[in-house]
Amino acid sequence: MKTSLIIPAYNEEKGLPLVIEDYLDKVDEIIVVDDGSTDRTLEVAKKYDVKIYKHETNKGKVAALRTGVEHATGEIIIFTDADYTYPAKYVPDFVKEIKEGADLVLGSRLENIKNMPFLNRIGNRIFSLLATYIGCINITDSQTGYRAFKRDMFDKLNVNAKGLEFETKMTVRAAKHGYKIVEIPIEYRGRVGKSKLRPIRDGIKMFFALCSVAYSETSLLAKMIMIPSLFFILIGLITGSISIYEKIMFGVLSHAYYPILTTFLILIAVQLISVGLIIDYLTKKLDRIEEKLSK
């Protein structure tokens, strides 16, 4: 199966040549999308036997990835970054998993996580746990930019995103639809060049992206089970806030049972949300099984 590597690049003149040289003998074609760079990224790419497409203005990583996929001729698409963090040596493992039936293969950055900045490491853990909860499958690195899938899966896994929340939404959407996700532990190298990730801003975007996928990709039945939980959470927050206010202002609680009520309501809400997500996951998984059997 022919493999196409997509490399979105924005001001990556230092890391890009290292990435291209690393992957040249591992894939069948390399597509570099220069996303409106203002440095020598384009000139560096032209030194190699790769396909090059250029955005006249910076449209963002997701637009660059889409441009790359549109021009790819391979049956297997592989995404990587232009900062030399993801080693090419794992490509055969990615391809092997795709051939064996995986719908989405992720390079999980657990083998050498010390090269990941501290804030990014914390965010990675938090959002991977949220992705695991929402998707009902164990995901250790939902944000990894090193991933592979069949070309015809792109439209099914594609999501409405503009920035770095794309990977998280794509991963969770695949899980919500019951597709087979396989993770391969990979080495994560130190970045070459300046990072464009802003932990706080991008973290907020990822959180709302997860909430968006959790709602939009959940079946009506699951939503009907989960809707009462919003009422319980609201009442719980109100009683909890009253308890905190009374304790701070007066030192005693005039409603002694409010803390217990708050805890009870929130626990019930979490249980309802969990049941809804599990039912949704089982429904989508059965749909995938039926889809494969019909083929």
Tell me what you see in this structure.
The protein folds into two domains: 3-216, Spore Coat Polysaccharide Biosynthesis Protein SpsA, Chain A (Alpha-Beta Complex), CATH 3.90.550; 220-294. It contains ten helices and seven strands. The chain has helices spanning 15-23, 41-45, 61-70, 91-99, 118-135, 154-157, 165-176, 199-216, 220-250, 258-294, and strands at residues 3-9, 29-35, 51-55, 76-79, 104-108, 147-150, 181-185. Strands 3-2-1-4-6-5-7 form a seven-stranded mixed beta sheet, sandwiched between helices. The longest helix is centred in the C-terminal third of the chain and has 37 residues, at 258-294.
Estimate nothing, just give the exact number of structural domains: 2
Which CATH class of the largest domain is shown? Alpha Beta
Order of helices and strands: EHEHEHEHEHEHHEHHH
CATH architecture of the largest domain: Alpha-Beta Complex
Mean pLDDT: 87
Number of strand segments: 7
Main sheet: strands, sense, barrel: 7 strands, mixed
In angstroms, what separates the terminal alpha carbons?
A: 20 Å
Beta-strand percent range: 5-15%
Helix count, DSSP H or I runs of 4 or more residues: 10
* Shape call: globular
The Cα radius of gyration reads: 22 Å
